[in-house]
Fold this protein.
Amino acid sequence: MTIEEGRRLRRLRRTQGLRRAFAETSLSPSDLMAPLFLKEGISEPAPISSMPGHHQHTLESLVKEARELAARDVAGVVLFGIPATKDAAGSEAHNDGGIAQKGLKALKEELGDDFVVVADLCLCEYTDHGHCGVIENETVANDPTIEIYGRIAVSQARAGADMVAPSGMMDGQVAAIRSALDAEGFHDVAVLAYAAKYASSFYGPFREAAEGAPRFGDRRAYQQDPSNVLEALREVEADIAEGADAVMVKPALAYLDVVAAVKDRFEYPVAAYNVSGEYSMLMAAAANGWIDERQATLETLTSIRRAGADLVITYHSKKAAEWLS
C-alpha cells in the first residue's frame, strides 16, 4: 500500500485548529496551583534571587497575589509560612496566631470557597535545625513528629485551610492527621498527602525561599530514594489506606514515570509538584535566550498533565494562566 492509499497522520496536525480539536491532553488554568511564601516581620515583599518573579510576601502582598491568581482562574495556592522565631520543636507551626495561620485566614476571608487554599504541613520552616520533625539521637523521631503534625493540622483547619498537605514523609502521618482533624470536628478538611516525595537535588531554590535548609545532615533517611518506584507505590498505597483524599508526587519532571505509575495503579486524584529547581532552570535558560519561555513552560506543564497529574503545583501558574486565557 502506498502513502496515497493509506493514512496520512499529518492531516490532523495541519492547522492550529485541527491540533486543538484533536489534542489528547488538555491544560487550563484550573489545572494549576501556585505555591506562595509568607514571611513574618517584613514590611514589603522580598524578591527570591534564585526564583525570578517570586517573593517572600507580606500579608498584604500575599492576598494581592492570590487575588490576581484567582482572577486568572488558577485553582488555588499552597501556603508556606516563614516565622520570625524558630525552635527545636517548631512550635510556631501550630500557633493559632502564627504567620501561616494569619495568611490562611486572610486568604479565605478574601477569596471564599471558589479558591482552594492548601496549607503545607511540615516543620522544616519552623525548626531551628531545619529538619521536618523532632530530633532524637541526631535523627528525626517518627512518632513524636506525627503527634505534632496532628496539632498543626488542627491549627491550620481552625484558620480556614481547605486542605492540609503533609510533606514530611513520616510513617503514619496521614492517619495521625486524619484522626486529629476528625477528633476536633474538621471532617470536611481534606488531606493532600505528599505521598512520594523524593530526596531530590531540585529543591535548592525552595530552601532559599522557605528558609528551611537542614543545619546538619540531609533528608535521605525519610524522603524517598530517587532510584525507587515500587517503594513509592507502597508509600502511596499506605497514604490512601490512611485516609488521604489526594496524593502527590514531588518533584514532577524527573519523576513523570512515577506520576504515570501512581495514576495507572490507583486511579486516584494525583497532584504533581513542578518544583523550584525545575522552575529556575527553565527561567535561567529563557533569560539567556536558549529557549522560548512561553513554549517551554506550556510544554513542561502539558507533559506533567499527560503523565497523569490531575493538578500541577507550579511556580509558572500566573504566567501560564495568562497564556492559556
Observations:
- The chain has one domain: 26-324.
